[in-house]
Amino acid sequence: MAKLKITLVRSLIGRPETQRRTVRSLGLRRLNSFSILPDSPTIRGQIHKVEHLVKVEEVADDSVKLDK
Question: In 1-68, where do the E strands start and end?
């Protein structure tokens, strides 16, 4: 399954609480923070709600190596 790299590129100041919670549930806290998540309909729906605040890139499974 493909992975998505989601980066927060716009500030949450003045945004509705629902958008803030959606961004937080995507694992984003600060400006320019990013999260790598599986590509699923649930994640795509969350991205659609805040697409004006985030940048989304597809990354290959084998290129994703995170330190644990």
Answer: 3-8, 34-38, 54-59
CA distance 27 to 35: 6
Among all chains, which residue has been given the structure tokens 């790299």?
A: 5
The SS3 call for residue 31 is coil
Structure-token match 């958008």, residue found: 19
Contacts of 58 (CB under 8 A, 6+ apart): 2, 3, 4, 5, 39
* DSSP 8-state assignment for residue 36: E
Q: Do residues 57 and 2 make contact, with C-beta atoms less than 8 angstroms apart?
A: no
Residues 14-56 have pLDDT tens digits of 999 999 999 999 999 999 999 999 999 999 999 999 999 999 9
